[in-house]
Structures are given as structure tokens and as C-alpha cells.
Design brief:
Protein name: Arylsulfatase
Keywords: Calcium, Hydrolase, Metal-binding, Signal
Helix content: 10-25%
GO molecular function: hydrolase activity; metal ion binding
Radius of gyration: 28 Å
CATH class of the largest domain: Alpha Beta
Number of strands: 35
Structural class: alpha+beta
Pfam family, one: Sulfatase
Shape: globular
Family: Belongs to the sulfatase family.
CATH superfamily of the largest domain: Alkaline Phosphatase, subunit A
Low-confidence stretches: 1-25
């Protein structure tokens, strides 16, 4: 049932004011206009609403004058509260509500009291889906053709939401809602994520009055880069556990873990903060409706549940018989629940891509079961905590008139751990795989603060049942087909109903506007607004429309050169030519045309099992032309199939173009997007410090953390420079003696061997991640020198910052120190000089020629 717009009614309204104020004409006004308690709705075509003319009387003194207050802006009468939930990296077969084996009782309960939607689509990747969801526009339309960390200098890919496309938060806030955003914010450009701002692309700058969460693609849930509004906070520092991992024996099969985990976890903390916020709003003004955007980091890597939840899931033995059996079990559950069409068949298991379970060695099976148990515990734990937030709405008496939208996943399940998984996803983002043997060392630590863990892609394939492929794959439904439940006791009467209409994430904004009776603005801050591109699906709320045709009939999909075109049930898709973990392979040079095209009729073939392109060449041609038409319309061009190269590409930064950086005071929290970039280059770090009489220790400068980064510090008075190479190796330069009291100049110089090429221009990674020689000097005297055979090629641990004078979140070497490890010497100055390799014309010509040969080989 969709809300009808209310007819205007007035109490004690000044006719003179109405005649002179178009903003107050035809609106709902309560109380005596001009009194301090009066409220009004607004037409909403212009935001913020212009102030009405003063309606009182002004004489020479106050005794003869009459005060007049502008009415407070409120939403239409009985406008519902809105809780918009979206989880992360979760495919169709994850939640129990849609046949999964992982218990999600909160989602189950909402489905029982509301509606299930089984045809909900994402963009196949995090930032793009999230930008589309909050704006009601396609992801390229709002600058998010890819994630923020891959932004390039084209309108569809610059990671900047235009001012002409206001978010649902801004619209609802200016119409009287209290607005908030909890959890993951992956829609701030990497080069605007520092405390230097600007903050216009942060949640608080996009219309959300309150933000509690992390900025970026993922976060350590035991110690995230956490912000309240735009201020970084560290509440977890007061809740440290006693966990220790003994890495002293490099030959040990598993490194033992002892102690108690922290009693702080982001999943619980954000639920607590959300409950606190809504209670605060309710107690301040019980009549004000709430809009809460709730986006936990679960189930994106790292998978960080509490030990309690891991033990609960392990006791259920859900995964002991492997991922193919899991897939079959989920499929049978889906048929039993009726959430997939009858007669559906599964696509075959990709034996050439993923090793069948029975062919795995016992050690691999043991590890993979552990991976899946921790992932499932994470999902179940998150669902429970979201249930607490929903219960808080009920406790405040708000649940009856609250729309709860709970979307499972912003894309399909992630396979970025690769076929065998990884103890650290930071390795994946640097193109480095990890072996079973390496991962087994972290077996006991899996899911704790000592891992940045991801599971085998075999589980990911199963969790996307009944579809195939994964997150990143925009042409296969395993990458884009989500599911969702909506509960609204006051507005939805068909309890437990199933809806199969086509819904895309761009459809949420127009749906919310329709049910609240709030208009899409024509101008925001004086800027003409572009049309909303989504289609309301509020019509599907009525039981009479349960089987109504979909009103969203055309939708393109594109992600990193793979694309699809949906139109009235037909689905043209490009054949997958790259697995998600093959992010550093050579890219398709002509992704628009150099493709194998597949065609499906989703009205008959719900999960892409039968390619009928050969039988309908005219339909293939028609949909190819339609995709190009949509691509031109929504800023999809130029198409680009590169993945890892885009991470390495240049983009704005506070340090871009600077080869000398000087710091004279301690500071922390500078994010990687604006930090000095010391990868694939020669550099010198010079620290000017004064050691007191009693000696000194502590961090001078660090960037990154436990899973990748460097640190320059004093350890028991001795100078140390350390590179943590993806937690696979920790290479240390250390002076032999403690520094004597007094002033010292400490210097670490690194001479890099490679060319530093890792850009889209050459689509080449040949010159990155190379070795070099590092030299540590004290007051001009060499105290340590050694060679690094390889260096980190692409990125440090991105959610860990560049810090001077202390270390935040995690340290680069647990064996030496624990954060914050403040510097007890006097800090005078830090100078960083960067000598980035410059290619000669001859080298450029060789690289260009090599690229041409590579492309010719692909063709």
C-alpha cells in the first residue's frame, strides 16, 4: 500500500502570510502560525525551504511590536520511521530467510511480518551499489562506476556524488526527519577522507545529521578506523583483551593463540550507538520521525565475529561435507521455501576454476571448514545485533509505523580470497596469494584481531546459490542478484508475502519518497536537480498487486568491463573472462566489443542456465545497441576492463606532486589516500629528535599496520626501521646501541630498483613491487644496511593511517611494541623526500610495444 498525499489543512492561519508565501500555501500547518510551537510541511521542490516572510509587527519598541516565529518544518502527518539496512558482500544463498543454512532470525521475523523480495539487484560492487542506493540514480551517474579506491578522472568514475543528485538523507532531513548513518561509508573520495576535509562528501555533508562508522571499503572490526561524525575516535582502546599469538617457531604448523579477546567489537558497538541515537531523538522529540541508514561491515572481509558466535556455529556442523553439498542443501531449502521458481536447475560446478571438495587434501578441508564457520558466525552475529536495533524501535513504541528494509548484500558473495582463501585480504589487494600451509599457521587465530581473513571462493560460489559467479561479476546474477525483506506493520497487510517484481537499488529512493508523501526536490542549495532514475516499487506493497508486472523494465549493469543489459525479461550478458581474484591480469583492451555475448530469457530461465544467443542474433544485436545507448546516457563510457591497475592509478591527494614533505608536530590519523606514498619508489625519511637524560622509546613515524606497513621507532633506545611485508615477512633495520641523551638525526634511505610502472596507461605491473637496498644511519653514520628482495606493490593496509609521534589501531610489529607506543623523545622535525622513478622515452616505447603484443595475444 502506498501512502496518499494529505490534503492541506490549517489552524489559525494568517491569510496575509499565505498569500505572500508560496512555500506555505497548500501545506499542513499545526498550531497558531507565528507561535513558537507551530509546525508546517513544505512542498519540498526547493531545499532548503526558503524562510517565510515575517508575519509579526515591528514598531519602534518591543511593547508595541508583535513577535512571530517561522513554523518548524515537519514531514507529512504520520510519515513513517525508516530503517534502511544493507549488509555487505552477501549473496542470495546466505540468509536462512532465502534458503541459506546460516541462521538469520531477525530477517526471518521481518519476512514473516512483511514481504520477501527475491528479484532485487545490485551493481556487483560495494561503493557503486551504496551510491546508487542513497541517490536513486545509477552508479555511473553519481561518479561511482567502481569503488572509491579505483577512481579515475572521468565523470562516471571520479567517486564524487554530484551536487545535482541529492541523497535521500538530504531530502528527508530538509523535510523534517532526524537522519543518521551507521557503519560502512564507502562513498567518500579517498583524497577527501582526511581531517583537512572538505567534508561535503562525508555522510554529514550528504544530508545525514549523525554518522558513526568507518570510512572505506572494510575495517578491522576489533579496532576500526572509527568516526563519530568527522572526528576519529578510539573507544576500543579501553577494551583491549589479552590475546597473544606465539609466532616464535616459524616451522610450527599452527601458531598458538592464548588469552581473552577484547570485549569490544564494531558489530555490537554500532548497534549500541544506533540505539542510543534513536533513544536520544525520541526523548528529545517523540513526534520526530527517524531515518536510519544502517550498513554494517559484515560480511565483508575481514570476517571478525566473537568467539561465542564461532562456537555456536561450529556446534551446528554446517559445512563438514564441503561446498558442493552445501550448495545442493541451500538449493533444496530454496525450493521448499518457494523463494525460487519451481523446476529450476543448478548451473554446473566449475571444476576448472574451483577444486571439487573430494579432491582437496584433508588439511585444506580442515582449513576451509574453519573459514566457513567463522564467516557464518559473522553473519549470524550481525543479524542478532541488528535485531537489537529493531527491538529498540519496538521498545520506543515506534515499530508499528516503521518501514524496515533489510537488504541482504550490496553485491554477491566475495571471492576475493581466491580458491584457497587468505589469512589477510591485504595480500589480495597486492596481487599476492597465500598457501594452505601459510594459512594454517593462523588456524587458531582465524577471525581474531590477528587475521584479516577471507574464505575460499568455493564457499562464495555456494553462498550465491541458485546463481553462479561472485561479487565483481556484473554479467552473472551471482554478482548482482540480492534479496530483501520489508516490514511495515501499519502499511503492509500481506504478511509473509513473496514479491517477484524486478527491483534495483536505485528504486529505494523513489519508493521512500512515495510512501512518505515527500516530493523529490527540483532545486537543492540553488542547484537544479537531475531526475531520479529509479522506479518506485510501492505498488507491490498492496496484496492486490502481488503478481503485478514489474514497473522497472530496463536496467544496464557494468563493472570493470563486464556488462549486461536487462530489458523486459531479456538479459544480454558478456561471458566472464576474469575471476575476481585475477585482478592483476592483462585487461581486455576493447571491452565494449571484444566480448563473447550470452543471452538469457529470465522469465523462463531464472538463473542463467541456458544461453540462447545463437538462436536470437537479432535480440543480441538489439540489446547491444541498447546497452551502448544506456552507457552514453549514464556516464558509463569510457569502458575500462582494468582492475588492479586502477588502484595503482594516480588520483588527487594532498601529497600528489610533492617530493618533499616536512612535519614539525606529532599528528595521527592521516588516511592512506592523503599519506606520503612510498611504494615503488626511492625515498629518504629523516627524523630530528632530542633524547632526554633517562633515554627514550616510541614511534617516530608509521603508516599501515599489522597486515602491511612500515614503522620508524625507538625500541629500548635503539633506532629501528621495519617493513611489514603483508605479514608474510617483517624486515628490520636496527642500530646496535641505544641513543645517548641529546639531539640526533636518524635517517632511513631506500634505493628502489624498479621503474615504478603500475598505471592504466601501460596496463603493466612489471616495474612495481621490486626490491632495493635500505640503509639506516644515525647522525650520518651507517648502522644497518640490507636488501629487500621484494616490496609491497600496490597498497598498504588502507584503513590504518599515517601517524607521527605514536601509533593508532594496530602496530606493524607485535613482537616489538603495542599501540599507542608514544614517542618519549622530543620530536623536532620529520622530513620525507621521495625520488620517484622517471621512465625514459626508450622504456616507454618498450612498455607500449609489450602491451601491444599482450593485447594481440589476447585477441
Amino acid at each position: 500500500m502506498s501512502r496518499k498525499k494529505h490534503k492541506p489543512w490549517y489552524l489559525f492561519v494568517s491569510l496575509a502570510v499565505l498569500l505572500t508565501s508560496t512555500e506555505l500555501f497548500a501545506q499542513e500547518v499545526t498550531g497558531t502560525l507565528g507561535s513558537a510551537s507551530a509546525t508546517t510541511t513544505i512542498p519540498g521542490k526547493q531545499l532548503p525551504a526558503p524562510a517565510p516572510p515575517f508575519g509579526g509587527v515591528i514598531k519602534e519598541n518591543a511593547m508595541q511590536s508583535k513577535p512571530w516565529w517561522a513554523p518548524r518544518i515537519v514531514p507529512p502527518k504520520e510519515a513513517p520511521n525508516i530503517l534502511l539496512i544493507m549488509t555487505d558482500d552477501a549473496g542470495f544463498g546466505v540468509p536462512s530467510t532465502f534458503g541459506g543454512v546460516i541462521p538469520t532470525p531477525t530477517m526471518d521475523r521481518l519476512a514473516k511480518n512483511g514481504l520477501r523480495f527475491n528479484r532485487v539487484f545490485s551493481t556487483a560492487l560495494c561503493s557503486p551499489t551504496r551510491a546508487a542506493l542513497i541517490t536513486g540514480r545509477n552508479h555511473h551517474s553519481v561518479g561511482f562506476g567502481v569503488i572509491a579506491e579505483q577512481a579515475t578522472g572521468f565523470p562516471g568514475y571520479d567517486s564524487v556524488i554530484p551536487k545535482s543528485k541529492a541523497t535521500i538523507g538530504r531530502i528527508l532531513r530538509d523535510n523534517g526527519y532526524a537522519t543518521s548513518w551507521f557503519g560502512k561509508n564507502h562513498n567518500t573520495p579517498t583524497y577527501e577522507a582526511s581531517q583537512a576535509g572538505p567534508f561535503t562528501q562525508w555522510p554529514t555533508g550528504l544530508g545525514f545529521d549523525y554518522f558513526y562508522g568507518f570510512v572505506g571499503g572494510d575495517a578491522n572490526q576489533w579496532g576500526p578506523n572509527l568516526f563519530r561524525n568527522t572526528t576519529q575516535i578510539y573507544p576500543f582502546e579501553q577494551h583491549q583483551g589479552t590475546l597473544k599469538m606465539d609466532r616464535s617457531d616459524p616451522k610450527a604448523e599452527t601458531w598458538p593463540v592464548t588469552g581473552e579477546e577484547s570485549d569490544w567489537n564494531m558489530i555490537t558497538a554500532m548497534a549500541d550507538d544506533a540505539i542510543d541515537w534513536m533513544t536520544r531523538i525520541h526523548q528529545s522529540d517523540p513526534s520526530q520521525p527517524i531515518f536510519m541508514h544502517y550498513t554494517p561491515g559484515c560480511s565483508h572481509a575481514p570476517h571478525h565475529p566473537t568467539k561465542e558466535w564461532v562456537e555456536k556455529i561450529e556446534a551446528m556442523h554446517l559445512f563438514d561435507d564441503g561446498y558442493e553439498k552445501l550448495r545442493e542443501r541451500i538449493f533444496e531449502n530454496q525450493k521448499r521455501l518457494g523463494v525460487i521458481p519451481p523446476g529450476l536447475k543448478l548451473t554446473p560446478w566449475p571444476k576448472d576454476l574451483l577444486t571439487p571438495w573430494d579432491e582437496l587434501p584433508p588439511e585444506a578441508q580442515k582449513l576451509f571448514i574453519r573459514q566457513a564457520n567463522v564467516f557464518a558466525a559473522y553473519v549470524a552475529y550481525n543479524d542478532y545485533e541488528m535485531g537489537r536495533v529493531i527491538q529498540a524501535f519496538d521498545d520506543l513504541g515506534k515499530l508499528d509505523n516503521t518501514i524496515i528494509i533489510y537488504q541482504n548484500g550490496d553485491n554477491g558473495t566475495s571471492a576475493e580470497g581466491g580458491p584457497v582463501g587468505t589469512f589477510s585480504e591485504v595480500c589480495f589487494f597486492n596481487g599476492v596469494g597465500t598457501t594452505i600451509e601459510q594459512q594454517m599457521k593462523y588456524y587458531d587465530a582465524w577471525g581474531t584481531e590477528f587475521t584479516y581473513n577471507h574464505m575460499s571462493a568455493g564457499w562464495s560460489w555456494a553462498f550465491d546459490t541458485p546463481f553462479d559467479w561472485f561479487k565483481q561479476n556484473a554479467s552473472r546474477l551471482g554478482g548482482t542478484s540480492q534479496n530483501m525483506v520489508i516490514s511495515w506493520p501499519q502499511g503492509i497487510q500481506d504478511k509473509g508475502g513473496l514479491r517477484e517484481q524486478f527491483v534495483h537499488v536505485i528504486d529505494y529512493v523513489p519508493t521512500i519518497l512515495e510512501v512518505t508523501g515527500i516530493a523529490a526536490p527540483e532545486y537543492v542549495d540553488g542547484i537544479k536537480q537531475d531526475p531520479i532514475e529509479g522506479t518506485s516499487f510501492a505498488y507491490a506493497f498492496d496484496k492486490a498487486n502481488a503478481d503485478a508486472p514489474s514497473q522497472h523494465t530496463t536496467q544496464y549493469f557494468e563493472m570493470m568491463g563486464q556488462y549486461a543489459m536487462y530489458h523486459e525479461g531479456w538479459f544480454l550478458s558478456t561471458k566472464v573472462n576474469r575471476a575476481p581474484w585475477q585482478a592483476f591480469s592483462a585487461a581486455n583492451p576493447d571491452p565494449l566489443n571484444n566480448q563473447v555475448f550470452q543471452l538469457y530469457n529470465l522469465n523462463k530461465d531464472w538463473n542463467q542456465t541456458e544461453d540462447i544467443a545463437a538462436n536470437h542474433p537479432e535480440k543480441v544485436k538489439e540489446l547491444r545497441a541498447k546497452f551502448l545507448e544506456e552507457a552514453k546516457k549514464y556516464q558509463v563510457l569510457p569502458l575500462n576492463a582494468s582492475v588492479g591497475a586502477r588502484v595503482a592509478a594516480e588520483r588527487p591527494s594532498l601529497t600528489a606532486g610533492r617530493d618533499t614533505l616536512v612535519y614539525t608536530r606529532a599528528m595521527t590519523g592521516l588516511p592512506q589516500g592523503d599519506a606520503p606514498f612510498l611504494l615503488d619508489t626511492s625515498y629518504t625519511i629523516s627524523a630530528d629528535i632530542t633524547v632526554p637524560k633517562q633515554g627514550a622509546e616510541g614511534m617516530i613515524v608509521t603508516s599501515g599496520g599489522r597486515f602491511a606497513g612500515y614503522g620508524f621507532y625507538l625500541l629500548k633506545g635503539k633506532p629501528v626501521f621495519l617493513w611489514n611485508l603483508l605479514d608474510l615477512q617483517r624486515l628490520k633495520w636496527e642500530g646496535p646501541d641505544a641513543l645517548a641523551p641529546g639531539r640526533h638525526i636518524l635517517e632511513f634511505d631506500f634505493q628502489y630498483d624498479g621503474s615504478g610502472v603500475g598505471t592504466m596507461a601501460f596496463n603493466s605491473f612489471a616495474g612495481i613491487g621490486q626490491g632495493g637496498v635500505g640503509t639506516l644511519t644515525v647522525d650520518g653514520k651507517v648502522v644497518a644496511t640490507q636488501r629487500m628482495e621484494k616490496t609491497i606493490p600496490i597498497i598498504l593496509q588502507w584503513e590504518e593511517s599515517f601517524d607521527i609521534g605514536s601509533d593508532t589501531i594496530t602496530g606493524v610489529n607485535d613482537d616489538d611494541y603495542h599501540p599507542p607506543f608514544p614517542l618519549t623523545a622530543q620530536f623536532n622535525k620529520l622530513t620525507i623526500k621521495i625520488d620517484r622513478p622517471q621512465l625514459s622515452q626508450e622504456e616507454i616505447e618498450k612498455l607500449t610495444e609489450g602491451l601491444k603484443k599482450l593485447e594481440a595475444g589476447r585477441e
